[in-house]
């Protein structure tokens, strides 16, 4: 089978890096292009068109890393939200503690407008009305938050864009 007919590798790499980070007791964060169609995130936390999401098991509920999208429920500044990130909007995954992770290379499947439209249509068919927020109240966003929004036991978060170290 030639490369053009293969399924995209991003969902598989995302799941592998997620498992690797969690298995090593690190906190996985997603870098998301929030400007793309189909992205459902709390827009008040978007900065420069991007949002960084903490997808650690303790920070989210109902996490699903499917071939089409990353979806979960979480609390942002104490308010429950249902989050949907189509796979084409995931730019990187990395560990908050040390930056280990990867940026995803562009893939032809995600570069065409028709692929985005097809994925968006598939996502629209899914109902998120019955998504229940986790009972714990961790913070799912690692962007600048209002004072008092951060748990006291976490170290201060670095300012600016995250630096990623590509692991091959």
UniProtKB/TrEMBL annotation:
Keywords: Hydrolase, Protease. SUPFAM superfamilies: SspB-like. One of its GO terms (molecular function) is peptidase activity. Residues 158-168 have a biased composition (Basic residues). One of its GO terms (cellular component) is cytosol. Pfam families: SspB. Gene3D superfamilies: SspB-like. Residues 144-168 are annotated as: Disordered. One of its GO terms (biological process) is proteolysis. InterPro entries: SspB (IPR007481), SspB-like_sf (IPR036760). NCBIfam families: PRK11798.1-1 (NF008762), PRK11798.1-2 (NF008763), PRK11798.2-5 (NF008769). Belongs to the SspB family. PANTHER family: STRINGENT STARVATION PROTEIN B. This is Stringent starvation protein B. It comes from Photobacterium carnosum. The lineage of its organism: Bacteria, Pseudomonadati, Pseudomonadota, Gammaproteobacteria, Vibrionales.
């Amino acid at each position: 089978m030639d490369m053009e007919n293969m399924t995209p590798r991003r969902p598989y790499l995302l799941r592998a890096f997620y498992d690797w980070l969690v298995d090593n007791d690190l906190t996985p964060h997603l870098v998301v292009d929030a400007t793309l169609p189909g992205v459902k995130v709390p827009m008040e936390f978007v900065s420069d068109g991007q949002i960084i999401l903490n997808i650690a098991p303790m920070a989210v509920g109902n996490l699903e890393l499917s071939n089409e999208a990353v979806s979960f429920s979480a609390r942002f500044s104490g308010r429950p939200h249902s989050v949907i990130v189509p796979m084409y909007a995931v730019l990187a995954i990395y560990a908050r503690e040390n930056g280990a992770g990867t940026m995803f290379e562009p893939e032809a499947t995600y570069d065409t407008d028709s692929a985005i439209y097809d994925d968006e249509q598939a996502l629209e068919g899914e109902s998120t009305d019955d998504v229940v927020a986790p009972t714990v109240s961790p913070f799912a966003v690692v962007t600048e938050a209002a004072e008092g929004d951060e748990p006291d036991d976490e170290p201060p978060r670095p300012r600016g864009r995250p630096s990623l170290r590509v692991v091959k």
